[in-house]
Amino acid sequence: QVQLVESGGGLVQAGGSLRLSCAASGSIFSINTMGWYRQAPGKQRELVAGITSGGSTNYADSVKGRFTISRDNAKNTVSLQMDSLKPEDTAVYYCNAAIVRTGVYSLKNYWGQGTQVTVSS
Predict the structure, then answer these.
(1) Pick from 85, 101, 107: nearest CA to 38
(2) Confidence of residue 7 (pLDDT cuts 50, 70, 90)
(3) Are 86 and 62 in contact (CB under 8 A)?
(4) Residue 50 neighbours by CB distance under 10 Å
(5) Which are the contacts of 102, defined by CB distance < 8 A and separation ≥ 6?
(6) How far apart are CA 69 and CA 95, in angstroms?
(7) What does the alpha-carbon distance between residue 105 and residue 27 come to, in Å, rounded to a whole number?
(8) Strands (E) located in the chain
(9) ∠ CA(120), CA(82), CA(38), 5° rounding?
(10) What is the predicted pLDDT for the residue at 77?
(11) pLDDT tens digits, residue range 65-79?
């Protein structure tokens, strides 16, 4: 089994910062891309930021210059540093990882349970 466990959400005022973290555990052979998605009420889930195992990153236009994604391949973790937060960043944030399980050797997408981020104006 594989689990993604997120931490770090909460309530912050506009202009503030939060750091989200996600740890993958279980029978992991390798992890390909890791990323963060978010879903606001009444909206579709959207990609916020992604990072490959080699460290290449991509960001949604709405967060470029404010959010930074990073990962620690040795610890199977991915983090999202969120600065200059805006009320429109309010959403449930989900960790995502494309993982090859030991003994299975096929790539599968896994999701965390989600963590609430609320930015007050």
Answers:
(1) 85
(2) very high
(3) no
(4) 19
(5) 27, 28, 29
(6) 11
(7) 11
(8) 2-7, 10-13, 18-26, 28-39, 46-51, 57-59, 67-72, 77-82, 91-101, 107-111, 115-120
(9) 75
(10) 98
(11) 999 999 999 999 999
